[in-house]
Amino acid sequence: MKDVETYTAPEFVRSPALRALECIQCSARYPVDDHPRGCPACDAAGRNANLFCVYDERADGLEDRLPYRNTPALGEGGTPLLRLPWLAGASVKNEAANPTGSHKDRFAAMAVAHAAASGFDAVAIGSSGNAGIALAAYAAAAGLRCTVAGFSRLPEATRQHLTDLGADLRLFDTDRERVGCVRELGARADTLAVSNIATPFVGCHPVGIEGYKRISWEIAGQAPAEVRHVVLPTCRGDLAWGVHRGFCELSALRGTSVPRLHLVEPIPRLAAVLDGAPVTGHFPGDSGRLYSIGGHTTTVQAHRALTGSGGSAVVVDDAAADVWFTRLCRRGHVWERSSATVFAAYERLRADGVIGDAEHTVLLATSHFFKGL
Ligand SMILES: [Zn+2]
Prior knowledge:
Blueprint: H1 3-6, E1 18-23, E2 29-30, H2 40-44, E3 51-55, E4 81-82, E5 90-94, H3 104-117, E6 122-126, H4 130-142, E7 145-151, H5 156-164, E8 168-172, H6 175-186, E9 191-193, H7 206-209, H8 213-222, E10 227-233, H9 238-254, E11 260-265, H10 270-274, H11 300-309, E12 312-315, H12 318-330, H13 337-351, E13 360-365
Parallel strand pairs: 5-13, 6-7, 6-9, 7-8, 10-11, 10-13, 11-12
Antiparallel strand pairs: 1-2, 1-3, 4-5
Helix pairs in contact: 3-4, 8-9, 9-11, 12-13
This protein binds zinc ion (ZN).
């Protein structure tokens, strides 16, 4: 036990198959580096878009198609795929079973491995709760400092968890101030900013997003039938893009089909883009208590995950989510309100015939309700 004070984290080893970063929008390729404003060419043109990791085509193992061979090990991933007796035609991937209670642990593990391997001493993130707690935990595991820029409305439970994990918590009233804080920290030589600092937003660090691909690979191994649809909550599309990439790579290596992704949002953002609004637009609306998927913007990566998979956008507002939140709680499930949205969306997609009776669907329950979100 005495080693707990002197323990130092291991070296994190980058996959030799990782070749480049590619722009989601213009397909320009760059050496593997940190581009917190997304693709430099698209940024210069005023239409920011995120990058994603490209691997050597000869890499024929899925694990080779992750940016790091090892990450801080807190037990993320391997979450259960639940069959619920009252839910016909679907199963639920329970991401609340991750160490800090959300899918963000998969992002944080990769992002922190990357920060440490790249020589940074600290990481910074703008977060509505889940991502901040995940990053704080993994940074602590790797011996890095962590700053979380959150909103003043952050629940007391979340604030306490962040402080307990050793994070430097800074609170702001507006998104502009919050992003400004992360931008300022990211300009320091010792700190890697892993969340948005560009306007319009592009999404989080592409190396961290790679961590979400394992969700798809796990689903493929766990599902009782071929998965035709995945329904998931969406804010700026990090999860959707990572899950889509995971299924695309599985398809390239194993010939499996790529499921349609249905992205659930509390106000029309992607739905407005599908109706002709620009993806860089500002989308007004009240997300109510759906804090973790709130916000008035969307991203190119969210849009591409939707269109690339032949999916759809589903608007589930706070009131509709609340009905399902209560229903799920009364059946013993401890998921956050944002996770309840996927059940409401699934019900609607089935009723509208978008999802057929015989088409197996996976719902992503992304996070635990203990953080008060
Ligand atoms: Zn570009």
